[in-house]
Amino acid sequence: MDEPLPPLRVTQAGRLDVYLARQLPALSRSQLQKLIAAGHVRLNSQVCQTKKTPVHPGDTLEVWVPPAAPLEAIPQPLPLHILYEDELLLVVNKPAGLVVHPAPGHWDGTLVNALLAHCDHLPGIGGRQRPGIVHRLDKDTSGALVVAKTDFAQAHLQAQLQAKTARREYLGVVHGTFSPPQGTIDLPLGRHPLHRQRMAVLPERGRSAVTHWQVQEHLGNYSLVSFRLETGRTHQIRVHSAHLGHPLVGDPLYGPGRPLGVNLTGQVLHAWQLEFIHPGHGELVRFVAPCPQEFVTLLAVLRQRQKS
Q1: Model pLDDT, residue 130
Q2: How many domains are there within the chain?
């Protein structure tokens, strides 16, 4: 077994997997639970095999992460809209409809397959290789996504996401009109207890999720809204907006499904701006991803309807 990660000194009582998920954001809770079950986590030098093991202030935790499994994804020369690239990272404008990394039902034709064809080597993390992926976008969400080309860059960028110094801003078209015109949604999210493909607001057992929003334009019965993420939970903007009664237009999971006369790939949500400290030169960098054509077309249609 490889050397463990640096020991963790517990500062707050809680459940083992929950505490580790807070301290090791690069690993999902599911990954941590598998490591615990496989005996790769020690509490005060004793192997733990249950995720519900209680931890207390002063305890010491050691976590071993096995080497990344051989990558099954194959390089595929798929088109990439690259906004920026250097020896440490690249920023792409991901189109709607493109899955970020291989998963059941999408073993090829993903962004990872395209990246493997574009770069000779990309880092993996957490026992599963998701080459260079620092953060994700839903399949049908378009926009700016940063990809690390070295282990150092990946760790540096993920630390910024954890510290909330990286800035991610989205544009979306929602049903109805937000009132007041700006605010913050602070509602914990977790897997829906009945519909496993969906997420839901879970005040008692969800993970912290914070979204800031501001109305950019009123479009009759719709609104163009900018969103800024503090956290990056699955479907965060989609669930928060729907919970407030303003689901994203075109959202197949959380929206009303009413046609607008515009052919949409999915939810009208675009990651339009990304800011972070460059791991190499230490300066703040900012990237803007142009909105896809269907987003532009929808705005034009709604503006025209408002005039008529």
Answers
A1: 67
A2: 3
Residue 205 lies in a domain: yes
State how far the alpha carbon of 59 is from the alpha carbons of 22, 49, 53, 85, 251, in Å: 16, 16, 12, 43, 45
Residues 172 and 301 in one domain: yes
Q: What is the CATH number of the domain that holds 181?
A: 3.30.2350.10
pLDDT in tens, 164-223: 899 999 999 999 998 889 999 999 998 888 887 899 999 988 889 999 999 999 999 999
Q: Answer yes or no: are the C-beta atoms of 134 and 148 closer than 8 Å.
A: yes
- In a 3-state reduction of DSSP, which class is residue 263? coil
In the three-class reduction of DSSP (H, G, I as helix; E, B as strand; rest coil), residue 93 is classed as strand
Q: Are residues 288 and 192 in the same domain?
A: yes
Q: Give the residue numbers spanning the domain of 109.
A: 82-155
The residue from 59, 86, 120, 138 that is catalytic is 138
Write phi, then psi, for 294 (nearest 5 degrees). Answer: -65, -30
Q: Does 151 qualify as catalytic in the annotation? A: no
Check the CA dihedral 85-89-94-97 and report its sign.
positive
Both 148 and 173 in a single domain?
no
Which long-range CB contacts under 8 A does 106-111 form with residues at least 24 apart? 106/139, 107/72, 107/73, 108/73, 108/74, 108/76, 109/76, 109/78, 110/73, 111/145
32, 43 Cβ separation under 8 angstroms = no
Q: At what angle do helices 29-37 and 16-23 cross, to 10 degrees?
A: 130
pLDDT at 126: 40
Q: How far apart are CA 250 and CA 264, in angstroms?
A: 7
Q: Dump pLDDT digits (tens) for 207-248.
A: 899 999 999 999 999 999 999 999 989 999 999 999 999 999
**Same-domain pairing of 302 and 247:** yes
Contact between 199 and 235 (Cβ < 8 Å)? yes
Q: Between residues 16 and 121, which one has the greater pLDDT?
A: 16
